[in-house]
Each structure stands twice: as C-alpha cells, then as structure tokens.
Amino acid sequence: DIISTGEIEANVKFDNFNKGDLAQIVFSYQNDYYYMCAGVTNLSPKYGFFFMNGQLNTVYATGNINKLDMSEFHIRLQLIGSFLELYVNGIKVLASAIPLGMNHTQVGIWVKSKDKVTISNFRTNYMRPEVFIVSQFGGYYDVLYDEVIKPVCKDLNYNPIRGDEMTSYTLILNDIITSIRSASVIIADITPDNPNVFYEVGYAHALAKPTILLCEKGIRNKLPFDISGFRTIFYDNTIGGKRQIEEKLRSHLQSINYSIQI
Predict the structure, then answer these.
(1) Gap between the Cα atoms of 23 and 162, Å rounded
(2) What is the pTM of this model?
(3) What number of other Cβ atoms are within 10 A of residue 41's Cβ?
C-alpha cells in the first residue's frame, strides 16, 4: 500500500514478548536505510517514533514502565499533515510532530523477535491530503482561488481549503493554526503586504511545510530574504497570466514528493 496521509493498522501477536522485541509500522519509506516508523518495543520506553537515516534515531518516546504484561497488540497509526498519533490496543500512547517532509511511498510493518510472531488484519485507510491556501480575501484573490488554485488542487486529488471556508465555534486563529498543521502543502499569495498572510507563512515555515508562494509581477518584484528560498510563482494579473499560474502550480505540486502518483 502507498500512503502519506491516513491511517495504518495491524494486529501483532508474539508467542513470547521478550526483552528487545518490537513491532513497528513503517512509513515514508525510501529504502532500508531511510524511513520512519512508530510502534511498541519491549525496552524502556515502550512506545516510540523513530527515524532511520543510516541508523535508528528516536524522535519521540514514552511509556517508561518496566514491563508490558501482554503479548498481543493492535497498533494503529494516524498520519495527518505533519503530525502522527499512535494507538496501542485502543489507547493513544504517543503524539508527535513529524520533523521532515512526508514521502508518498509504501508503508508496512516490521517485527523483531526470536520467537514466532503473527501479523494479521493489516489495513490502510487513505485520506486525501489537504492544501491550505493563505491569501487576502476578496476581489481578484477570490477569482484566482476559485478559477485556478482550487481546480488544480482537486485535479491532483488534493483537498483545498481557505480560511474563510472554515466554520466552527472556536477562534479563527485556532482554526487556521490547526489547518496549517494538518495540511500537506501550503499555497500562499504574498502579493500585498498583509501581516496575517506573513504570520501564517512564518508558522508554516516553522513546521517545515512544503510551501508554494504566489506573487503578482510589478507589485512585488523581489521577495523578502527570509522567504526567498520558497518555490515562487510570479504571475501577471491577466487571462494569460492565469493560464501560466495553472501550469506552474500543477508542476510545483507534482514536484513535491508525496503528491506524485496520488
């Protein structure tokens, strides 16, 4: 199965859950030396999120207990945007930010034990990744969103969402922060000097989110230094300019690893 956003689960039964045994769900897999995984171990701590980059590195771990008095586990991993949540036997045991960009690659499970291990009911539940659009509202920005950005995202099987489309009873800033955290990609129009837009771009930058910037030629000819390294599409506010944005936006989205072959 191939997944970057969604749920992965499996049942794992050890004949004997001995010291050093483990069961890990593998995701963002590139090769045997570069992947991420999360699951249960018979070490201390008992639950962990790991990143393999030539050697196994602990990103986050919890469950500092001496012994797990069980040998059967239902492991469920949720991957939403740049965050993961790990559930073991129905209990959330770990939640952590993902420090690097997710790759749209195969997922699986690996176990370690000297005794017999049975894996059953391995399942994945794919979810459409979200693109959060950061921009000023009204006028041409609404037209650009409705006629260009939204259709391109949907055509590439992304779920586009903009701040003014969210409906909840919480503070709008909380909704925006949650949406940025949950999104797989950020698209931001930085043409006007809008402090809200730059605040949201900065937050996305802090989370290491793949970010595509849009900027109208003639209004802002040079990007501020701190964001000059982002993918940027400079466009003309014309009919022909819209076609160029569509082509370049499609190309940029497809160049992001986990958007390929969705």
Answers:
(1) 39
(2) 0.71
(3) 21
